[in-house]
């Protein structure tokens, strides 16, 4: 049995998560994957019910899980809370040791009409951002007074080394190029970052390394996204650049992500926010949540099943089924159901192939 903790969270989180879980449930039943799901309070809803965004019971369930699926957290409702919903997410990442965030983005030919970039610029773009997740300015010491405030950004060599290895290993399975993004002309942490990444690169002679300042990277992502393969960067830069990258494919609602560490359960979530203004309207795009489920299956060693779900998701988009963020009129639930319909077709074809293979093997025995 594979135990999956589900944290629907806030805003549109429960809606998109429900569609991803429904796809996984159907896939698990058809392929006997043994996925078992349990829901727990997290984020703003946990503040309302328990007084804090990450209750101990939720944290314990996550620690004991094989993987965690998250919807979204946050909203204006909790702006004045003693501890905001986002603080629960930072703590969860830290407690589970999730230091590497993987955010892939690919421009699908069928969606080039909704990309803000010209087709000759965006066509074929396929980028993986590897973002350091548990250090940097988001986790540094901070102070705030009436007329001054500060946030400390710090990194150790060890923290940089471990995330760099993740990026180089990923590049070995892609197009063998890493672009390390920093601000080494200004920041001491970036100077250490560049020095450390350069040293790690020596262990990967088959991977090309280039360094780029973050402002230049932000520009090139728009003017020549095909230049990139794997982008390696620190926490805040990765947060900003991955959101910029998300719109190149047409909508932030399309992209999933995986947060992984060293041996514990991974956390899988769409990169979009909670979008409280459309919560409950059944118009959110669940593609990012479903894409996150694909990444979860891959991380669990169920890559064959993940590829079936990925194929069903891409087929749905190629067929023109679109939610409102992509200029369509499909509801969140209608999009999810169409993915599941295409998944059933994929499962049927894969079953027929297995039967044919078994029959041919018997004839050749």
UniProtKB/TrEMBL annotation:
The record marks 138, 183 as: Important for catalysis. PANTHER family: 3-ISOPROPYLMALATE DEHYDROGENASE. Pathway: Amino-acid biosynthesis; L-leucine biosynthesis; L-leucine from 3-methyl-2-oxobutanoate: step 3/4. Its cofactor is Mn(2+); Mg(2+). Its EC number is 1.1.1.85. It catalyses: (2R,3S)-3-isopropylmalate + NAD(+) = 4-methyl-2-oxopentanoate + CO2 + NADH. The gene is leuB. Substrate binds at residues 93, 103, 131, 215. It comes from Sphingomonas daechungensis. Pfam families: Iso_dh. One of its GO terms (molecular function) is 3-isopropylmalate dehydrogenase activity. Keywords: Amino-acid biosynthesis, Branched-chain amino acid biosynthesis, Cytoplasm, Leucine biosynthesis, Magnesium, Manganese, Metal-binding, NAD, Oxidoreductase. Homodimer. It is an enzyme of class 1 (oxidoreductase). Residues 3-339 form the Isopropylmalate dehydrogenase-like domain. This is 3-isopropylmalate dehydrogenase. Belongs to the isocitrate and isopropylmalate dehydrogenases family. LeuB type 1 subfamily. It is found in: Cytoplasm. Catalyzes the oxidation of 3-carboxy-2-hydroxy-4-methylpentanoate (3-isopropylmalate) to 3-carboxy-4-methyl-2-oxopentanoate. The product decarboxylates to 4-methyl-2 oxopentanoate. The lineage of its organism: Bacteria, Pseudomonadati, Pseudomonadota, Alphaproteobacteria, Sphingomonadales. InterPro entries: IsoCit/isopropylmalate_DH_CS, IsoPropMal-DH-like_dom, Isopropylmalate_DH. Binds 1 Mg(2+) or Mn(2+) ion per subunit. Mg(2+) binds at residues 215, 239, 243.
């Amino acid at each position: 049995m594979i135990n999956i903790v589900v944290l629907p969270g806030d805003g549109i989180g429960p809606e998109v998560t429900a569609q991803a879980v429904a796809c996984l449930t159907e896939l698990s039943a058809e392929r006997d994957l043994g996925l078992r799901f349990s829901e727990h309070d997290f984020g703003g809803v946990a503040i309302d019910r328990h007084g804090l965004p990450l209750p101990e019971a939720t944290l314990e369930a996550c620690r004991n899980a094989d993987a965690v699926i998250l919807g979204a957290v946050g909203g204006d409702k909790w702006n004045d809370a003693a501890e905001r919903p986002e603080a629960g997410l930072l703590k969860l990442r830290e407690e589970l040791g999730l230091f590497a965030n993987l955010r892939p983005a690919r421009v699908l030919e069928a969606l080039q009409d909704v990309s803000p970039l010209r087709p000759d610029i965006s066509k074929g773009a396929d980028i993986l951002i590897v973002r350091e997740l548990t250090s940097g300015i988001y986790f540094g010491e901070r102070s705030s007074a009436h007329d001054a405030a500060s946030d400390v950004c710090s990194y150790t060599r060890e923290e940089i080394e471990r995330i760099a290895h993740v990026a180089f290993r990923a590049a070995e399975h892609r197009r063998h190029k890493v672009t390390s993004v920093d601000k080494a002309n200004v920041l001491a942490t970036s100077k250490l970052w560049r020095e450390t990444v350069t040293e790690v690169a020596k262990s990967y002679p088959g991977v090309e390394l280039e360094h780029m300042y973050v402002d230049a990277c932000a520009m090139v992502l728009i003017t020549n996204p095909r230049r990139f393969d794997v982008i390696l960067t620190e926490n805040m830069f990765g947060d900003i650049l991955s959101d910029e990258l998300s719109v190149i494919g047409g909508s932030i609602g399309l992209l999933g992500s995986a947060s992984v560490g060293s041996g514990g359960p991974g956390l899988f979530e769409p990169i979009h926010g909670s979008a409280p203004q459309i919560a409950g309207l059944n118009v959110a795009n669940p593609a990012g949540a479903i894409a996150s489920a694909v990444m979860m299956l891959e991380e669990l060693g169920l890559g064959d099943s993940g590829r079936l779900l990925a194929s069903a998701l891409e087929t749905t988009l190629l067929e023109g089924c679109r939610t409102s963020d992509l200029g369509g009129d499909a509801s969140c639930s209608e999009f999810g159901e169409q993915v599941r319909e295409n998944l059933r077709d994929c499962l049927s074809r894969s079953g027929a192939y297995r039967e044919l293979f078994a029959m041919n093997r018997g004839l050749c025995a």
